[in-house]
């Protein structure tokens, strides 16, 4: 099965390309809506207004990029995007000399950004807010007037996404070092070189889920790398004890259903929060009690993902316990899909992607707004059909 290209790598590569004096080719660019939105925005910088819809990465990355790009622009998004805070990033950029104002509600998009030459100075940022803020600042840092020093305070969420940014910046010629809680970026110029984007481990998670729930099943997922830049490449380790054996091949990874004796599952998702929904649905389907922690920023994603999981499982007869950073389940409950029941997605692609395989045990499941998967995995429903799932639109 061919997987989508990584949108996380694609989106970072697009910003780096836009900041590079000489343009270069990006092969296997993600076809997700998030990447398409960012591609269109960077294609025509003469526009004055940019609507990035629900693309959170594009909002954060473009806020920093537009801050150093001459011209005045309005950056806006969907109604949900207008409820996702961005004041920490804006405050730092303005402190460096940016000219960013809130067009509507203080602290939230839309933003009016007037591009300026920014002046580097030591900056402090909380590590438990959003790694995308940190990545956005790092990628523009080489264009500041001198060395940039970023100090990260407290617990760092989604650390692997920051490492992804750092590795890509290094690959394109930037001198950047991360020691303990400080990141130092030298003033420099991005060097052009061709990049081939690897397959998306986040999208692979739904196939790990499917194989875990299907006895005697096996599939090869192409385009995935063992030594990946993506934190979600922890999947083989996560699923090892819950029914999936993984073996890397010359083309990707082959995954196979195996028996599991797991009685309780516990994991800290601080570095891979996008996998939490997939794991939660898998464990409920297999009736394995669990404790999922490190979910500190799930409430500010496309929806409040902790609340969405609790709410939708409640309707299916499963009673999860939760707080702001964790989800717990005692087990000993079976999924009961009432007739004509519809799983709400809350405009969150990962709700649709993670819940769809639950149809393996319910035999039929109706999912609201199926097109939401285009945000990260446009061919998901077609790919499910290829392996025997039957889908129909209402």
Task: Describe this protein's structure.
The chain has helices at about 5-20, 35-45, 55-65, 85-95, 130-140, 160-170, 200-215, 235-240, 275-285, 305-315, 350-355, 360, 380-385; strands at about 25, 50, 70-75, 100, 110-115, 125, 150-155, 175-180, 180-185, 195, 220, 245-250, 250-255, 265-270, 290-295, 320, 325-330, 340-345, 365. The chain has about 400 residues and is of the alpha/beta class. It folds into 2 domains: about 5-195, Alpha-beta prism (UDP-n-acetylglucosamine1-carboxyvinyl-transferase, Chain); about 200-385, UDP-n-acetylglucosamine1-carboxyvinyl-transferase, Chain (Alpha-beta prism), CATH 3.65.10.10. It has a 4-stranded mixed sheet, with helices on one face. β8 (about 175-180) and β9 (about 180-185) form a beta hairpin.
How do the helices and strands line up, and which of them pair or pack?
Elements: H1 7-19, E1 26-27, H2 33-43, E2 49-51, H3 56-67, E3 72-76, H4 87-95, E4 99-102, E5 111-114, E6 123-126, H5 131-140, E7 148-153, H6 159-171, E8 176-179, E9 182-185, E10 195-196, H7 201-213, E11 218-222, H8 235-240, E12 244-248, E13 252-257, E14 265-268, H9 276-285, E15 290-293, H10 305-315, E16 321-322, E17 327-329, E18 342-343, H11 349-355, H12 359-362, E19 366-367, H13 380-386
Parallel strand pairs: 1-10, 2-3, 6-7, 14-15, 18-19
Antiparallel strand pairs: 3-5, 4-5, 7-9, 8-9, 11-13, 12-13, 15-17, 16-17
């Amino acid at each position: 099965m061919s997987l989508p290209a990584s949108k996380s790598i694609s989106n970072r590569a697009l910003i780096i390309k836009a900041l590079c004096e000489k343009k270069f080719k990006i092969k296997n660019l993600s076809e997700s809506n998030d990447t398409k939105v960012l591609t269109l925005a960077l294609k025509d910088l003469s526009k004055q207004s940019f609507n990035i819809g629900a693309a959170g990465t594009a909002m954060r990355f473009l806020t920093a990029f537009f801050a150093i790009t001459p011209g005045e622009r309005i950056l806006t998004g969907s109604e949900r995007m207008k409820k996702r805070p961005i004041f920490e990033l804006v405050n730092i950029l303005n402190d460096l000399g940016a000219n960013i104002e809130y067009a509507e509600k203080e602290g939230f998009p839309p933003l009016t950004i007037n591009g300026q030459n920014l002046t580097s100075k030591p900056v402090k940022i909380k590590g438990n807010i959003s790694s995308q803020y940190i990545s956005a600042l790092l990628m523009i840092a080489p264009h500041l007037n001198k060395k940039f020093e970023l100090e990260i305070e407290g617990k760092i969420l989604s650390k692997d996404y920051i490492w992804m940014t750092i590795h890509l910046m290094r690959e394109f010629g930037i001198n950047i070092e991360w020691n303990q809680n400080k990141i130092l970026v030298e003033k420099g110029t991005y060097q052009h070189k061709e990049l081939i984007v690897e397959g998306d481990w986040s999208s692979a998670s739904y196939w790990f889920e499917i194989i875990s729930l299907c006895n005697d099943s096996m599939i090869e997922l192409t385009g995935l790398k063992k030594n990946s830049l993506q934190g979600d490449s922890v999947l083989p380790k996560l699923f090892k004890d819950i029914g999936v054996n993984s073996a890397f091949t010359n083309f990707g990874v082959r995954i196979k259903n195996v028996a599991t004796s797991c009685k309780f599952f516990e994991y800290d998702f601080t570095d891979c929060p996008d996998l939490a929904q997939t794991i939660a649905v898998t464990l409920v389907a297999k009736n394995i009690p669990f404790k999922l922690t490190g979910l500190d920023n799930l409430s500010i994603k496309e929806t409040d993902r902790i609340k969405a999981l609790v709410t939708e499982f409640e309707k299916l007869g499963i009673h999860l316990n939760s707080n702001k950073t964790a989800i717990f389940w005692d087990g000993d409950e079976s999924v009961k899909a009432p007739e004509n029941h519809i799983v709400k997605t809350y405009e969150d692609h990962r709700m649709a992607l993670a819940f769809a395989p639950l149809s393996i045990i319910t035999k039929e499941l109706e999912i609201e707004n199926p097109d939401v998967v285009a945000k990260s995995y446009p061919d998901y429903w077609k790919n499910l059909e290829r392996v025997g799932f039957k889908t129909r639109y209402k």
